[in-house]
Specification:
Elements lengths: L10 E5 L6 H14 L4 E5 L13 H7 L4 E5 L4 E5 L11 H6 L8 E5 L8 E5 L15 E6 L13 E3 L3 H14 L2 H4 L8
Parallel strand pairs: 1-5, 1-6, 2-5, 6-7, 7-8
Antiparallel strand pairs: 3-4
GO molecular function, one term: GTP binding
GO biological process, one term: Mo-molybdopterin cofactor biosynthetic process
Pfam families: MobB
């Protein structure tokens, strides 16, 4: 795949430790981005096995009959299931997942998780949780959304975003979309082999 920034969608990660409030923040930010007319995609990484289907449904039965991929289509939505029969511990890569999205229908992809991947990120941090701050060691973090200013944060070049002010976080994202360089916004979406 040849890298062409005009054919890719900007990608912005939300990184933080479990329980820091990433999902809650995104749930509050997305409506503000939608109100601004943006088409928002979301890629969420989970360490848990998920089962979005019921054993009594045809799609469940067909998946467990041995399908490697199943596309369930309805008038309101469709879901694409990939089954990894060959490995219990297979973790899909960020770029592999991004390649599965229809980028022609998106203005931005927000990524929750993939904390250690190289992509531009907003850190979601709660000092009271006692977890280390990621911005101290991750050069891809461009802002920190937190409820309390972390100790020693004053020397940080990162903007502080109020985790309880989702409109302000959305405004930061809209500004980033307009001003960030292509290198900050775009990733090549080739599946990792």
């Amino acid at each position: 795949m040849t890298f062409q920034s005009n054919t890719l969608t900007p990608v912005l990660g939300f990184a933080g430790f479990s329980g820091s409030g990433k999902t809650t923040l995104l749930e509050s930010v997305i409506p503000h981005l939608k109100a601004a007319g943006l088409r928002v995609g979301l890629l969420k990484h989970s360490h848990h096995d998920i089962e979005p289907d019921k054993p009594t449904k045809d799609s469940y039965r067909l998946r467990y009959a041995g399908s490697d991929q199943l596309l369930l289509a309805t008038s309101k939505r469709h879901m694409l299931f990939f089954e990894y029969h060959d490995s219990e511990d297979r973790e899909p890569g960020l770029r592999e997942c991004l390649a599965q999205l229809d980028h022609s229908r998106l203005d931005i992809v927000l990524v929750e998780g993939f904390r250690d991947e190289i992509l531009t990120k907003i850190e979601v941090h709660r000092p009271s949780y006692g977890k280390p701050a990621l911005y101290l060691h991750d050069q891809n973090i461009i802002a920190v959304a937190c409820d309390v200013i972390p100790e020693g944060f004053g020397a940080s070049p990162h903007p502080r975003l109020d985790i309880n002010a989702p409109k302000d976080v959305a405004d930061f994202i809209k500004h980033w979309l307009k001003t960030a360089s292509d290198n900050e916004k775009y990733l090549a979406y080739e599946p990792e082999l």
